[in-house]
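Hi everyone, sorry if this is the wrong subforum. Our group has a chain we'd like a structural model of before ordering constructs, and none of us has done structure prediction before. Sequence below.
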Amino acid sequence: MNKRWRNVGIYVLLVVSVIFVGTAFLDKPTASNASRLLRYSDFIEAVEENQISRVLLSPDQGTAQIVENDGQRSEVNLAPDQDLLKLLSEHDVDIAVQPTRQPSPWQQAASSLFFPILLLGGLFFLFRRAQGGSGGNPAMNFGKSKARLQMEPSTQVTFGDVAGIEGAKLELTEVVDFLKSPDRFTAVGAKIPKGVLLVGPPGTGKTLLAKAVAGEADVPFFSISGSEFVEMFVGVGASRVRDLFEQAKKNSPCIVFIDEIDAVGRQRGAGLGGGNDEREQTLNQLLTEMDGFESNTGIIIVAATNRPDVLDAALMRPGRFDRQVVVDRPDYLGRLQILKVHARDKTLSKDVDLDKVARRTPGFTGADLANLLNEAAILAARRELTEVSNDEISDAIERVMAGPEKKDRVISDRRKRLVAYHEAGHALVGALMPDYDPVQKISIIPRGQAGGLTFFTPSEERMESGLYSRSYLQNQMAVALGGRVAEEIVYGEDEVTTGASNDLQQVAQVARQMITRFGMSDKLGPVALGRSQGGMFLGRDIAAERDFSEDTAATIDAEVSELVEIAYSRATKVLTDNRSILDELAEMLVEQETVDSEGLQELLIRRDVKVAEYV
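Answer:
Right subforum, don't worry. Here is the predicted structure as C-alpha cells:
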C-alpha cells in the first residue's frame, strides 16, 4: 500500500510537469512561414522602392513580418528608428500590430501550481528518506522504535561461536534455560530474571554474547543502541521505549538487547541545568517498562556498557537488572580459543604456533586478536605470500601495539646511536631487575610517535589478578628511567634529550599512586588520600575537594620525590656497573636495528653481569 501511494505521487508530479511544459509550447505564438530574414537596410531600401505592401509589427516593435508585392513573406529585426512609421505611410504600406497573446487558463493554472507542488513533493520524499523509508505517515512513525529484529535461525549465533569468556557464558546459561523451559523454574516459585547487564571493556564480545543467548534459546532478538532513543524532541525517546516493549510483547519470549545503555541510562539530576530533559524522560520510561505496573513476562533485557560507574542507581537495582555479568579481557586459554576461531578462515603456515601468540598478547581483547590476525593476513598479501607466517604475526603484534614501522625515515648516525643507547638502557635495567617482566624485543626502528621501543612480556598472573607488589612498582619506575639514565651516562647531563618525556610522566604517576592510592608510604602509612574525580554531568561532584591538608600535600610531594630518586639511583647503579654490556648492546642495535630476547640472553650469559639489588 505504501509503495502504491508513493508511485501515485510520482505519476501526479509527472503529469503536472507534462501539462506545464506542453501548454508552454502549444500556447506559444506560432511564427509565420517566413522563408528568409532581411537585413534592416535592405528592408528600408525595399520600402523606398515601393516593393513592400504590408508590414505586421510585433507588440514590442522589435521584429516585423513583411509581405512584398509579389506575395513573398520575410522577417526583419527592427532598429530603434522614429521615422520608420512615417516612411511606411509615405509609401502606402499597410501597417498592422500583432495583438498581445494572453496565456491560456491551463497555462496559468500549471504555472501557478507547478512549483508549489514540486516543492511539497520534494519535502515529502526527503522526509520519508530521513525516516528510513518507513511506511505510513512519517510524522506518526517518528516516535516508533528503531530496534532491529532478527528471527531467522540462519542469522543466529550460538555459544559455540563465542570463545574466551567461559565464565560469562556460564552465567548466561541459566537465562537460556529460563527461556527454553520456564515452567521448570516457575513450578518452584522462581521468577525469570528481567534484566542482565553485561559489563566489560570495549571489544570483549558483549554484543556477540547477547546474540548467542538468543540463538541458544531460539527466540527473537531485538537490538538497539542507547543513542537511538534520544532525539532533539522531548518525548520521542519515551515513545520509542514504549513502542519497543509493545513489539517485544507481541514476540515474547524474546531478548531485547540495548547496546551502550550508558547513553540513555546515566544518573539523573546531574549537571547544572536540572533534570527535565529528553534523556531523563527516556530513562524514566525505561525504568517504568522494566519494573512498572504491567508485567512484561517473557521479555529479558540484555544491556551492555563499559561505563557502569555512571549508570543511574534505579536502573541497577534488582528487579530491573537482576544480574551483572562481567565480560573481562580473556586470559591465556581464552585468547588461544579466540585465535583458533579467527584463524579458521586464514591460511597459516605450519610453523605458526597460536600458543606462543596467545602468550605474547596478554591484555588483548577478542576484537584486538581478530584485528591482529587480519593485519597479519594483510601483511602477507602485501608481501605477495600465499601463507601467513610467524614473521607477519610478529610484525602485526608490534603494529597493533605501537603503530607501523617508519623505515623510510632518514635518521642520522648520531641520532641512531642515541636511540640505541636509550632503548638499551631500558632493556638492560629491565633484564637485571629482580622480579620483573622479561624483555621480548628491542628495536630502534621508529614506530608511531616513538623513535624506538623495548617490548616486555607482562606476567599473565599479574595481569589477571591486578595485584602488583611494591618491589615490582619500584622496578617499573627504575626501568622507565633507564633510557634517561643511559643518555646521561654516555653523553653527559648537558646532552640529555626530551625523548624520556613519556617515561617521566609514567614514573610520576606510579609514584603518586603508590603514596595516595596504594598506601605504600613510610611516613603517611596505609592511607588512601584524595577523592576520585568524577566528570561533570555524570552525577558526581562537579569540583571534588581534597580531603587532606596542605601539610599532607607537602608530605606527599616529598614522598613522591623520594621514590623517584630511589628508582633513579637504582637505574644509575645498574647501568654504571654494567657499562661495557650497555655499550655492546647499543652497538648490536646500531648494526641490527632489532635484538630479540634470545640475542639479549646470549649477551648476558657470556658477560659478567651485576644484578640490581632489592630496595
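For your construct planning: The longest helix spans residues 550-577. Residues 26-34, 132-143, 533-544 have pLDDT under 50 and may be disordered.
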